[in-house]
Design brief:
The chain is mainly α. 74% of the residues lie in helices and 0% in strands. It has one domain.
Length: 325
């Protein structure tokens, strides 16, 4: 049974958090460029994840909030999520051996299409006509920004597409099976499981090496804090607030923000094609959000387990009162 369309009104707080998410999410390539001279690619990814895991674990230990039952009771879930994210990370690093990082980053936006497809087919999300229109306009914009003449069936491009699909599948799995897990421990064991998956990949490639210069450690710590802890906390928080399809639509703004970072850090002014594509992405998001910020309709989404129990208790209480009367 499919779920009727839902208009999810964005509060000011949610909108502000999504704005910050777009800023830090689009910094990923900046950190990758900073770490490139100091570590092999797979080692850099592993160290950034380990640093992030240590930061989250120390914080939750200080707050006495670590609950290992969350891990043991959901071990298969975390192994699957960690494997998907670790595999996506490894494949993205592998792809730059065959295609340049810029082309790989642009091709990775195909994750939007995969995520929306999984949301519609597996999670039974539904888009209204206005949302379909806004999504189509934004996808055209992403295509204009991302298009690069050349052979797209090369091995490097196929690896990027595989990486994008794995990350989109991880988002759908988290939305389907992880929404009711306590958030802080979910995040701790998610980054821990991904670190473990990356550890196996580093071990397999025999890439346990230190930085070429000490400053590499500083960049790794900054990247772990911003690119993983802050960025992914906001990512999963917003994923819990929105449907997976709408979440993917919002993140289509990321290439536009990346253009702005390129202008700021590398003094690279966007091309006419990038400006046109960015304008279409913005227009598509405006179409989607103007509709969603309209009057609210009844929420017909499937209830969580707690809500179902609460509703059942209320029904039993009403029945008891009727019998007493």
């Amino acid at each position: 049974m499919t779920n009727p369309p839902i208009r999810e009104k964005l509060t000011q707080n949610t909108g502000a958090i999504l704005f910050v998410l777009l800023l830090v999410d689009s910094l990923h390539l900046v950190f990758a460029a900073l770490l490139r001279p100091y570590f092999p690619a797979v080692t850099a990814g592993f160290l950034v994840l380990v640093i992030a895991t240590a930061e989250v674990w120390l914080f939750l230990t200080w707050r006495r909030q670590v609950n290992w039952r969350v891990l043991t009771d959901n071990l298969l879930f975390f192994l699957v999520v960690g494997g998907l994210v670790g595999g996506a990370t490894w494949m993205s690093y592998l792809s730059v051996r065959f295609v340049d990082p810029g082309t790989a980053a642009l091709l990775s936006r195909s994750s939007t299409i995969f995520t929306i497809g999984l949301g519609l087919l597996w999670l039974k999300d539904r888009l209204t006509q206005q949302e379909w229109l806004g999504t189509a306009v934004a996808l055209v914009g992403v295509g204009i920004i991302s298009f690069q003449p050349g052979d797209y069936l090369r091995i490097g491009s196929l690896i990027v597409l595989g990486s994008s699909f794995m990350y989109a599948l991880h988002a759908a799995v988290v939305k389907r099976y992880g929404d009711e897990l306590e958030f802080t421990n979910f995040f701790l064991f998610r980054v821990m499981a991904t670190s473990f998956a990356m550890l196996l990949m580093v071990w397999q490639q025999d890439a346990f090496v230190g930085p070429t210069e000490p400053i590499g450690w500083v960049y790794a710590v900054v990247a772990g804090t911003i690119d993983v802890v802050i960025s992914r906390v906001l990512y999963y928080w917003s994923l819990r607030k929105l449907t997976v399809s709408y979440h993917a639509i919002i993140l289509m703004m990321s290439p536009v923000v990346t253009i702005l970072w390129s202008l700021l850090f590398f003094r690279e002014f966007p091309t006419v094609r990038a400006l046109i594509g960015g304008a279409l992405v913005l227009a598509g998001l405006v179409v989607v959000n103007v509709y969603r910020n309209g009057p609210q309709t009844t929420d017909h989404r499937p209830q969580t387990a707690d809500k179902r129990r609460e509703s059942a208790n209320k029904r039993r209480g009403t029945s008891d009162k009727r019998r007493e009367s």
